[in-house]
Amino acid sequence: MAETALEPFGVQLRRCRQAAALSLRQLATRVGYDHSYLSQVERGRRPGSAHLARLCDRELAGAGALAQAFQRDRQARPLPVVQGGQLLEAVRHGVTEAFVRSSVGAEWSTTTADYASTFSLTPAADLLPELTADLELLHRTAGSEAADLAVPAAELAVLIALTLSSSGRSRAAERWWRTARATADSSGSDWIASQARSWQVMSTTDSGGAGLLELGVDALTLAERPRDQARALAAQARLLAVLGRPEEARLAVRLLPGGIDSSGSVFGWAAHEPSSVESFVHTVLGDTASAYVSLDRALGLCPAELRREEAELRLLLAECLVLDGDVATGLAMAMRTLVELEDQWHSPSLYDAGGRVLAAVQGKELTRPAVRDYRELLRRRPFGGRSVGSGSSTGEGQG
After folding, report:
1. Which of 6, 182, 196, 326 has the greatest number of beta carbons closer than 10 A?
2. Where do the domains of the chain lie?
3. What CATH class has 1-77?
């Protein structure tokens, strides 16, 4: 028993899950985390979080053992600013470069590609510390390779800005967007400069403004690959729709290519994304007939593990129902979507979509009790520290 108590958190988690005769998917459903993320935690590829440990203790009758294991791991894990850890990692990079014939730049590119591929599957509260630690390490070990590491540094900065945006930390996100653009521009690589601008526009669409329009134009000008052009067009289409410029928004939608990347990377262009953008634009513009077609296609293509993306699509569907006069069904769908989505996947963009559902309710329909209940629900934003969904009772760990 003593040896088991000293095992790493991931090992103990797997042992407790197996003892409870639960699959990864079954446990993931119970605690509200993605099964692939739990798999990485069990294998030691991700550290997990105190929030996750407590949830697993609850579901697996761990009596606090998992929370203790996580705390022990965290205390034993060296921080990225510890000089000894920096030296050890710098030596490793030097050996890799000298003997394995693999440049430090290539290794960091692999690291950022992994982050970009799993980004949408990992809660922001768990992802931000890892991203920050790796960018700190990259910066401190760059040395003479600094010029070659500008692209992975820019990729990490974009991911940090996106994580902050999804956590509702808009001021910090704005600072990181500036850093991401500057780092991307210094790299001399137009594709990451384009992606940095496109994602800033995508994450702040509802704020509107001429500055975002300029960023969108720059993103399209800099786009050098089909996936970068698609991302820039998507950002432009969404923004133009919000700004009430329907013809330009529809033109941008018509220019969108089909899905051209199956990796799931943030910097790619997946199969469901064209229909998702079409759904957003048609809904915001009030073209509900076209929106229903796009939403049906988008929901059919959207991978089940992309919980937040699917929830945003369902909120668009709820908005269309309200716009078409079916207020009761639309509000019920919107409320169910927000309540059933686990807290760690809630974000400002989700509540922007939820707010548009409420804004679509007009006239005497505003007196419905459901409207009052839904308005109250929209005030409880988990990324602000309050709980809505079934994934947590406290809203803790939202970044």
Report:
1. 196
2. 1-77, 82-187, 189-292, 306-399
3. mainly alpha
